[in-house]
């Protein structure tokens, strides 16, 4: 037999209280709960903001955290050892994608002869039968080399449809075999071979430095392209490592070409590595709010905290004794 339970004093008595008073107590309880919830949100957001700030500062070795984090995100990136250090640290994890294989053509006599035939039907109308160029139509290709031919053909820039157009990346017009033959023919007229490039051997921080001072003015620091007088500097998301090297050495259209004295082969490896890196930069960490980085994320968190605190203040102010 179970013992009779003692009367549930508090709750039972409440039920018997007048309805108005009961309602008042419930409302007070609800308000108290809301206050605690808001306080919890505020504390959480505050903690997140602080953590984000801390994360930003851990990236830099010297100097203030904020400076280091900003340097990491900023486009300047050249000054201050701190900035470079932060970048080098942040970037060391980035892998290098993309094959490095340079398909150096096997230049046989047959290839050159076949290439010449293709040239006469597809290119001579602008470049002339002897490939010495036609005034106001197309330049002389003697000395352009396999380097330029490979770049212009594999990016679909040639054959151009109008001599006055800016050559832009387009669907490739020739088969792999035909490209090899055309490249062999143009290469046989003299000029630099297809450059070899090894982005894995490059240094990311150095690549960014060289890119910042030589390329970013036209292509932007993130390699997303831009406008220069008389031309469009394309985004660099599609170019293969070899094509990047070819463009740097050739200087297509209004882009200047860079000799080995200006950008050494080692620096070119680094630049290519940097360009590949811009396609999938390291995650800056934190929330998925667009990966805008620790400092702005911290600001978002503080904003939430401020709104929550205002809510708390209002609730407290509302309370009537
Ligand atoms: C004066 C502005 C300028 C500078 C400086 C410059 N470029 Fe360019 N770049 C261009 C223009 C314009 C084109 C488009 C050329 C064309 O239409 O054929 C181009 C094309 C390219 C392409 C071909 C992209 C594609 O998808 O076909 C690559 C790669 C490239 N540049 C890399 C570089 C690198 C690396 C540097 C620095 C070493 C650099 N550029 C410096 C203006 C510039
Ligand atoms: C409608 C005219 C036209 C046709 C057709 C044409 N080209 Fe060109 N080509 C040009 C012009 C204009 C330039 C200069 C563009 C520039 O400065 O980037 C050029 C530049 C080039 C260059 C770079 C030269 C250099 O010194 O860097 C190569 C290589 C080239 N063409 C190869 C070819 C080949 C191969 C074909 C045939 C498959 C071809 N072109 C068809 C007009 C033409």
TrEMBL record:
<dbReference type="GO" id="GO:0046872">
    <property type="term" value="F:metal ion binding"/>
</dbReference>
<dbReference type="GO" id="GO:0009055">
    <property type="term" value="F:electron transfer activity"/>
</dbReference>
<keyword id="KW-0349">Heme</keyword>
<protein>
    <submittedName>
        <fullName>Cytochrome c6</fullName>
    </submittedName>
</protein>
<feature type="domain" description="Cytochrome c">
    <location>
        <begin position="110"/>
        <end position="190"/>
    </location>
</feature>
<dbReference type="InterPro" id="IPR050597">
    <property type="entry name" value="Cytochrome_c_Oxidase_Subunit"/>
</dbReference>
<keyword id="KW-1133">Transmembrane helix</keyword>
<feature type="domain" description="Cytochrome c">
    <location>
        <begin position="202"/>
        <end position="279"/>
    </location>
</feature>
<feature type="region of interest" description="Disordered">
    <location>
        <begin position="1"/>
        <end position="28"/>
    </location>
</feature>
<keyword id="KW-0408">Iron</keyword>
<dbReference type="GO" id="GO:0020037">
    <property type="term" value="F:heme binding"/>
</dbReference>
<dbReference type="Pfam" id="PF13442">
    <property type="entry name" value="Cytochrome_CBB3"/>
</dbReference>
<dbReference type="Pfam" id="PF00034">
    <property type="entry name" value="Cytochrom_C"/>
</dbReference>
<feature type="transmembrane region" description="Helical">
    <location>
        <begin position="299"/>
        <end position="317"/>
    </location>
</feature>
<dbReference type="InterPro" id="IPR036909">
    <property type="entry name" value="Cyt_c-like_dom_sf"/>
</dbReference>
<dbReference type="InterPro" id="IPR009056">
    <property type="entry name" value="Cyt_c-like_dom"/>
</dbReference>
<keyword id="KW-0479">Metal-binding</keyword>
<keyword id="KW-0812">Transmembrane</keyword>
<keyword id="KW-0472">Membrane</keyword>
């Amino acid at each position: 037999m179970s013992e009779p339970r003692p009367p549930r004093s508090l709750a039972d008595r409440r039920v018997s209280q007048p309805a108005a008073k009961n309602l008042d107590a419930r409302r007070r309880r609800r308000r108290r709960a809301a206050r605690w919830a808001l306080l919890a949100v505020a504390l959480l957001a505050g903690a997140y903001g602080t953590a984000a700030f801390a994360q930003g500062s851990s990236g830099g070795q010297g100097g203030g955290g904020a400076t280091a984090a900003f340097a990491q995100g900023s486009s300047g990136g050249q000054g201050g050892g701190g900035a470079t250090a932060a970048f080098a640290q942040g970037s060391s994890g980035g892998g290098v994608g993309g094959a490095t294989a340079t398909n150096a053509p096997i230049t046989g006599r047959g290839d050159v002869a076949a290439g010449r035939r293709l040239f006469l039907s597809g290119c001579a109308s602008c470049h002339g039968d002897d490939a010495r160029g036609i005034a106001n139509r197309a330049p002389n290709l003697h000395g352009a080399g396999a380097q330029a031919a490979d770049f212009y053909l594999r990016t679909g820039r040639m054959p151009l449809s109008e001599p006055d157009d800016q050559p832009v990346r387009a669907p490739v017009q020739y088969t792999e075999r035909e490209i090899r033959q055309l490249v062999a023919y143009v290469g046989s007229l003299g000029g630099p071979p297809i450059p070899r490039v090894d982005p894995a051997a490059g240094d990311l921080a150095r690549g960014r430095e060289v890119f910042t001072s030589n390329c970013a003015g036209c292509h932007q620091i993130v390699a997303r392209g831009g406008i220069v007088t008389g031309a469009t500097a394309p985004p660099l998301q599609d170019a293969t490592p070899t094509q990047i090297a070819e463009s740097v050495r050739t200087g297509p259209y209004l882009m200047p070409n860079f000799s080995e004295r200006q950008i050494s082969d080692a620096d070119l490896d680094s630049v290519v590595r940097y360009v590949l890196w811009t396609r999938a930069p390291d995650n800056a960490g934190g929330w998925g709010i667009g990966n805008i980085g620790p400092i702005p994320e911290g600001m978002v968190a503080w904003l939430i905290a401020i709104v929550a605190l205002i809510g708390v203040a209002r609730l407290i102010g509302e309370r009537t004794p």
